[in-house]
Amino acid sequence: MNKDELLNYMPHWYDGVYEMEELLKAQGASLSKFDSDRERTLFNEFVIKTDEKGISVFEDQYGIIPDPEDSLELRQQRVLMRMLPPQPITLRRLQQIFKSLQIPASLSRDVGKRLLKVTSWDGELSSSQQKLITLTLNCYLPANMIYIYQTWYKCEPARAWVGSATTCKVTTVAHAEILTEEQQRVKFYEFGIWQKNKQCCYGLRW
């Protein structure tokens, strides 16, 4: 309720009367505070809507001692766990509990080893939610069963480029050699240029 709402119900013949306007403003402030307190009392009947004072009443009823650094949301969820009706603890039941508590984590079990694995991704859970996972498992799992809580980190896929390069170094060496006329004819014949250079060959002399 707005503290100035009573002015809307003031008779018109009191318009401009200072005393009446101030009286209604004072009464409106008192009624607004009373209305807020009444609404807060109603909300404190429901765990999700409670404030610090309201959740402490539920914690006292269930014998829960909160840590000083616990957030209000964590305290509310812890009380909700205690208030849940008893049911057989199965994997599906635990998944339903995690879903109702809005905990994004996956569950798997190893029946032979009596092992429960809880996996979550880093960054998706707050510190309060991670603490709530531990509290939930400690509260619901039987004494002969163990659990492992793992947090995985997401990273970009790695890429590697593998290649090879070959460097070749070629050195050309020319050997100077003095040939006789007969040796020149043999070389020309080997390379098939004897007929083309026959006249030229006759002119070579060393």
Folded structure, characterized:
By secondary structure, the chain is mainly α. Helix content is 43%, strand content 9%. It contains seven helices and three strands. It has helices at residues 18-43, 52-62, 72-83, 91-100, 127-140, 181-190, 198-202, and strands at residues 106-110, 115-121, 146-152. It has a three-stranded mixed beta sheet, covered by helices on one side. A hairpin with a 4-residue loop joins β1 (106-110) and β2 (115-121). α3 packs parallel to α5 (127-140). The protein is elongated and about 145 Å long. Residues 160-176 and 196-206 have low confidence and may be disordered.
List its salient traits.
three-stranded mixed beta sheet; disordered C terminus; mainly alpha; single chain; 3 strands; 43% helix; 206 residues
Number of helices: 7
- Percentage of helical residues? 40-55%
Low-confidence runs: 160-176, 196-206
Which outline best applies?
elongated
Label the structural class. Answer: mainly alpha
In round numbers, the mean pLDDT is 76
Distance between the termini: 127 Å
Total count of strands: 3
Strand content: 5-15%
Largest sheet: 3 strands, mixed
Sketch the topology as an H/E string, one letter per element: HHHHEEHEHH
Indicate the radius of gyration in whole angstroms.
46 Å
Query: How is the largest sheet built, in terms of strand order?
Result: 1-2-3
